[in-house]
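User: Batch of two.

Assistant: Item 1 of 2:
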Amino acid sequence: MTKDDLIAYWVESSESNRKSMQNMFVNNEYVWSLFIGHLCIEKLLKACYVQEVDTIVPRIHDLYKLAVKCNLEMSEEQMDALLYVTLFNIEARYEEYKREFHKKCTKEFTEKNLKKIEKLRKWLLAKIKN
C-alpha cells in the first residue's frame, strides 16, 4: 500500500465510524456513540501520522499523545478536547468505569460531546488535505 492509500484508508474508515456514531446517537446508544466518536478521531490522527511521520502507525489510543507524535500544532481548546474525548475510549470499555459513564451519557451530554468530536474532525481533515 502506498502512503496515499494508507491515508485514504484511515480517512474512509473514520468516515464509516462517523456514520455509525450518528446512527447510534439516533438510536439512543449514547455510550457507544461516544466510543465510536473516539475511534473516528483516532483514525484521522493515524492518517495525519502517516502523512507527517511514518507509514507504520503507533498502536496507541490516546488522542493527545497521537497528536503530539504527529507534530500537530494545537490550541489549548484542541488539546483539552483530545484529552477529554480519549476518556470515552476508557469509560465505555472498562467495567469499572462503565456504570458511571452510562449515568453521565444523557442525550444532552452526548450531543454536546459529539459537537466536540465534529469540530476535531473538521480540524483534522483540513490538516490532512494540506
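Item 2 of 2:
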Amino acid sequence: MGNEVLVTSEQTPIEIALGIDEEGMTTARKLYSFLELAQGQFSRWAKTNIIDNSFAVENEDYWGFDIDVEGNKTVDYKITAHFAKKLSMLSKSERGEQARNYFIGCEQSLKIAFKKQRAAELERAKGIAVRQALTKAIQQSSENERMHGHAYSTYTDVIYKSIFGKNAKQLREDFGISRKENMRDCFSEEDLVKIQNAEMLVSALVGYGWGYNEIKEFILNKGINKIAA
C-alpha cells in the first residue's frame, strides 16, 4: 500500500493504512485522508457513501459523533474495519485501486494456500491407509514379537533416517513438538508422498518375509529418496 506502511503488529498492511484501532474501528475522516480524496468535499462524500448508503446500517456499520476542527464543531463517523475496506474498494481514486489490488492479491494467496492445504490433507488421509497396511503387515509377521512390540516405531525410524537423515525423536526436536502431537502435520506434501511410498515398500518387503536387518540395509544402502520418489 506504499512505503509509509510498516507492519509492526498482527494487523494487515491495509488495516494499518486505514488506522484501524484495537476495537476494529477507524473514522470516516481517516479513510477519506487515506483515499486522498478532494479537500473540502468530505461532507458530500460522507452523505453519499455513508449516510445515504443503502447497504450501510447506522449503529452497526457506522456511528456519527461530533468533533472540533479549528474551533468549528463538525461531524465525523466511526466506521467498522469491514465497512472501511468495502468503501476503499468502491472508491475510484488511485488509493481505491491499490486497495482493490491488495484484496484481490489476498484472495489469490488464500486460494493457493487452500489448494496446498487441501492437497496436504489428502496426502495425510492416504497416509493413514498406508500406515494401517504397514501396521498390519508387521503384526502378521514375527517382527513385532521379536522387537517386543516396538517394530512399527523401529521401522518408522529407519524410514525417516533414510529420507531425512534423522529418526522420529530428532525430527520432533527440530519441529519443536511433543510426542502427543502429530508429526505428519509438520511435513510438506512432497515429504508425505516420500514417506507413504517408503512405507508401502517396507510393507511389501515385510510381506515377502524379509527381516528388519535386511530391510534396513536395503533402504539405507539403496537410498529411499530414490526408491520412494
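The mean pLDDT is 84.
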